[in-house]
Amino acid sequence: MKRIFTLFLFVFIMMFFTGCDAFSVTDVSGTETTEINYDDLTTDEPTTEEPTTEEPTTEEPTTDEPTTEESTTEEPTTEEPTTEEITTEPVTYINNSFIPEGYSLLQDELDAFGIPSMGDVNILVFAVDFPDSKYTNENPSILDIETAFNGESNDLDFESVRSYYQISSYNQLNINADVYGYYTLSENASYYETENEKYIAIDPVTGEYVYDDSEVTHVESDIIFELLTYYDDQIDYNDYDSNNDGLIDGIYIVYNYPSDSENDLWWAYQYNYSYTDSFDGVSPDYYMWASNDFLNEGIDDINARTFIHETGHMMGLDDYYDYSYEDDYNNGGLGSYMMDYNVGDHDPFSKILMGWIKPIVIESSTTINILPHLESGDVLLITDEWNGTIFDEYLLVSYYTPDGLNSYDPDYIFTESGISIFHVSARIDDGYLVDSYYYSIFNNNNTDTPNKLIDIVEADMNESIEQYEIIENSDLFQEGDVLGVDIYLDYKWYDNTYIDFTVSIDSITNEKATITVTYK
Ligand SMILES: [Ca+2]
Ligand SMILES: [Ca+2]
Ligand SMILES: [Ca+2]
Ligand SMILES: [Ca+2]
């Protein structure tokens, strides 16, 4: 058993709606987390039955036109009365965009991952308690846990793990949880806590582990071993490896012990099984570990946000918040969305990585309509040159709307419509930086690399996110704004070269936004 620097690898979540000390960005910014407008929380029903499944095409289907450069004048947009334009109008609408094919996704690049990003996936959820911390009817029940994982949208204030991923994936990921327990573990909670402290103890002077591998044990892995052994007769673990890679897709342990952000064990994180065992021919690997009181966070009856966030990690997504304020890099992380603040929809970059949407690529001057991202999945990928890969540096441009999954947490996400522009730096040639605080295959992360993996281009140019503030409505681009002219005249790629184009927000209506990208 090889220990890696466990502390560095823990994927912590932030306590939602509570003023936890250790990892909450809100504390650093000094922002109060208490006053939230909950009025919106009941406005429900996002886009469940919007089965926009694959192809988030704009209404300009790129299929029929092999648009070489000079598909000029009469590119008939559907809604344009073509009669007049022949005589009067100059070239107003050139769509040189295309939807790429055959590029690899995040899970194609990862050595291993837990939950496949698409398809029908069965996950295992084990509720456990301890001889010294037994479940009582004061604690979340098995039914509550069942609801948090499998509930319908209407069953929760926000969403269940299942309903959230159905919506965010445009019905391409269908997670079903089988819940077992409460099972009483063989050891007391106090034992596991003590053993875990030994496991992660690091000598502050040498930076080495205090105890040899032979003196310690990995308690979560011990617990998983005990559970899988106990349930082996009842469960065919083959049913939980939907992609047949020999690894159980997802094991979730929900423990009956109070969460404590100051304690390394009594928190919520995703991690990996430490031993090599197999059950019914498949092996445990990716697991999530969380207290059942995360289900009681905030004002929701049952709050599954922490489990939704960690499920992102089970699929290989990184955290987009800044783990370390001690370096001078990447202050403030992304500033919102599910992989930073446990709120809202997944950001468009994550959806591209998962294969839920395909970007509309632009590498030459183009005017194009995009539909609201939440329902359509539309997002422009603007680059100097498309290199056949999403693991590159580019801008993402999407039409943000504050409805559906984005309507629940107004203090943590945009509350107006507008155009959100992301600067993505997703190259992976170096990968897994050993000296980095954050372990990732990307060259960049949102913690301590010179540039952020994903950043928001702030339309107000005040760089408030870099001051650890949550995104603000003024960060959205509005009609008439032009990136590269009135907003960031000299916007640069991270290699310090200027971007070769301007991005103009021509118009925004309820139905669509019209964007013109002009290359110099
Ligand atoms: Ca079995
Ligand atoms: Ca698997
Ligand atoms: Ca940092
Ligand atoms: Ca700002």
Short recap of the structure:
This protein is an alpha/beta fold. The chain has helices at residues 6-9, 25-29, 82-87, 106-109, 142-150, 161-168, 189-200, 219-230, 305-314, 338-341, 348-354, 373-376; strands at residues 11-12, 119-129, 173-184, 251-255, 269-272, 286-291, 360-362, 366-370, 380-382, 393-400, 418-425, 454-456, 482-483, 501-508, 513-519.
Strand and helix map with partners:
Blueprint: H1 6-9, E1 11-12, H2 25-29, H3 82-87, H4 106-109, E2 119-129, H5 142-150, H6 161-168, E3 173-184, H7 189-200, H8 219-230, E4 251-255, E5 269-272, E6 286-291, H9 305-314, H10 338-341, H11 348-354, E7 360-362, E8 366-370, H12 373-376, E9 380-382, E10 393-400, E11 418-425, E12 454-456, E13 482-483, E14 501-508, E15 513-519
Parallel strand pairs: 2-3, 2-4, 4-6, 7-9
Antiparallel strand pairs: 1-5, 5-6, 8-15, 9-10, 10-11, 11-12, 13-14, 14-15
Description:
The protein is α/β, with parallel strands linked by helices and 520 residues long. The chain folds into two domains: 82-107 and 326-519, no CATH class; 112-314, no CATH class. It is built from twelve helices and 15 strands. It has helices spanning 6-9, 25-29, 82-87, 106-109, 142-150, 161-168, 189-200, 219-230, 305-314, 338-341, 348-354, 373-376, and strands spanning 11-12, 119-129, 173-184, 251-255, 269-272, 286-291, 360-362, 366-370, 380-382, 393-400, 418-425, 454-456, 482-483, 501-508, 513-519. The chain has a six-stranded mixed sheet, with helices on both faces. Strands 7-9-10-11-12 form a five-stranded mixed sheet, with no helix packed on it. It has a four-stranded antiparallel sheet with strand order 8-15-14-13, with no helix packed on it. A hairpin with a 4-residue loop joins strand 14 and strand 15. The longest helix is centred in the middle third of the chain and has 12 residues, at 189-200. One calcium ion binds next to loops.
